[in-house]
Design a protein that fits this description.
- With about 220 residues, the chain is mainly alpha-helical.
- The chain has one domain.
- About 75% of the residues lie in helices and about 0% in strands.
- The longest helix has about 30 residues.
Length: about 220
């Protein structure tokens, strides 16, 4: 192991120790190593159902605060499922189900922007799978920031609520800050929690499978 690997491992250990005991065990494994192509269909269906349920319940629980698990669920799905279509179907299904209760977006274009901003974190799944806690944190914060930028840009461009000028765009982003302030917190907590849970559960399943093969 070279010096940079040692330094990286030491930094990851420091952050892991700073987390609560409930989140520490999964992240201390360093990687979502058990999210491999060998996961059986039963395990994939179980994880798919759990993630969709968490996303729907969390989104309906307090939509006004924007402290939802959507980004965390998308990151976990991208890391757990080797097939990106399956990964993308998790946040897509959660949005479709929860939108049957929540207010509409006002236009198909706006809906498309929201869906795209909610689904794209699955593309970071590979990095989350290979990386550690810093990758999860970075992915969560990037997800919330891109959602804020893209959806408010779309709102500014698609509606007449603000002048279509630079000043109007700035005013739109400023007006959205109260809705955004808790979003990074929620994305961060949900992402760390879900990816930690996925790591721990997947590691347990891998150990069970290894023992079964050995026997």
């Amino acid at each position: 192991m070279n010096t940079s690997d040692v330094d990286s491992q030491q930094s990851s250990d420091v952050v892991s120790r700073s987390l609560s005991p409930a989140l520490r065990p999964g992240l201390e494994r360093g990687r979502l190593a058990a999210t491999n192509a060998g996961m059986g269909r039963t395990e994939q269906l179980l994880w798919w159902t759990v993630l969709v349920a968490v996303a729907v319940i969390g989104r309906l629980w307090q939509p006004a605060w924007n402290v939802t698990p959507m980004a965390g669920v998308a990151l976990a799905a991208g890391a757990l499922f080797p097939n990106r279509w399956i990964s993308a179907s998790v946040p897509l299904a959660a949005l479709l189900v929860s939108n049957s209760v929540l207010p509409g977006y006002g236009s198909w274009t706006m809906a498309g922007v929201v869906f795209a901003a909610s689904i794209w974190p699955i593309l970071l799944g590979g990095m989350v799978r290979r990386g550690g806690v810093f990758t999860v944190v970075g992915g969560a914060l990037a997800s919330s920031l891109l959602f804020y930028i893209s959806t408010n840009l779309a709102h500014w461009g698609l509606t007449a609520d603000y002048p279509h000028t630079v000043e109007g765009l700035v005013a739109c982003y400023v007006a959205a800050l109260p809705f955004y302030r808790w979003m990074p917190v929620g994305d961060l907590l949900w992402s760390v929690g879900l990816c930690s849970l996925a790591t721990g559960m997947a590691g347990s399943m891998a150990n069970v499978g290894a023992r079964a093969v050995a026997e």
